[in-house]
Design a protein that fits this description.
Length: 240
């Protein structure tokens, strides 16, 4: 609880002293947990060594199981929902997932949408402030999975005091020049299993998540909040 409380204090105050205090207590907590696990393991081994029936199970574990490498998770065989043929090779599994997730795009039919035009001039300051950047980065969870850039939000939060000026200038440059960096557009797509399924043979039991660049995510969140405020302030949404 104390570690959690110190983390909240650090996020609120955003000072080096608060960060060092949180880091010191967190390291101490991890050390205590590790020592407790070791003591529990030694106690179990001591109890097993005293029981005649359990000593052979302990000896078997020491000879075999403790020396083995952990088994790697295996990708189960797959089949398409419209074909009962089972696929076992890695290349064919990739092909099935690609056909399922990356369908050919089609043009949306918007003929039934009535044309509308809002004759309204909205004046607002397009410059992004340091407070907006700071609040947005602190709002995103620290340990969200990072994208291909391998820059986590925790890293940005820890070094925010040194990077706040650079990030603010970068975001303002993107808006001023109307340019979205190529690095911001890169995403890392991962296939995950859907929970609580009886088997994972059917390709429908898998789904995709896209890991976005954390700086791109921060810029998008800032712009989404700004646009939402403008729309709500000027009543630009239809009552329908």
């Amino acid at each position: 609880m104390k570690s959690r409380r110190l983390q909240i204090i650090w996020k609120t105050q955003d000072t080096l002293e608060a960060w060092n205090e949180y880091l010191k207590h967190n390291d101490h907590k991890n050390k205590i947990i590790q020592q407790t696990k070791c003591a529990h393991f030694r106690t179990q081994m001591h109890e097993l060594s005293k029981a005649l029936k359990s000593i052979w199970r302990f000896a078997k574990w020491a000879r075999i199981e403790s020396q083995l490498f952990k088994k790697l998770s295996q990708f189960s065989s797959l089949k398409r929902s419209d074909i009962n043929h089972m696929t076992t090779t890695f290349e064919k599994k990739i092909k099935i997932l690609r056909e399922k997730f990356f369908l050919s795009s089609s043009q949306a039919n918007v003929s039934d949408i009535a044309e509308s035009f809002i004759s309204l001039t909205v004046l607002f300051n397009s410059r992004i402030t340091k407070d907006e950047v700071k609040q947005t980065i602190k709002w995103v969870k620290a340990d969200k999975a990072s994208s291909a850039s391998n820059i986590s939000n925790r890293a940005l939060q820890v070094s925010l005091a040194e990077l706040i000026s650079v990030l603010t200038s970068l975001f303002n440059a993107c808006i001023t020049h109307k340019y979205h960096s190529k690095q911001f557009k890169k995403t890392q797509t991962i296939v995950l299993c859907k929970l609580k399924k009886s088997d994972y043979i059917d390709s429908k039991t898998y789904w995709l998540i896209a890991l976005l660049n954390i700086m791109s995510k921060a810029l998008k969140l800032i712009m989404i909040k700004r646009l939402s405020d403008i729309v709500e302030t000027h009543c630009m949404l239809s009552n329908a």
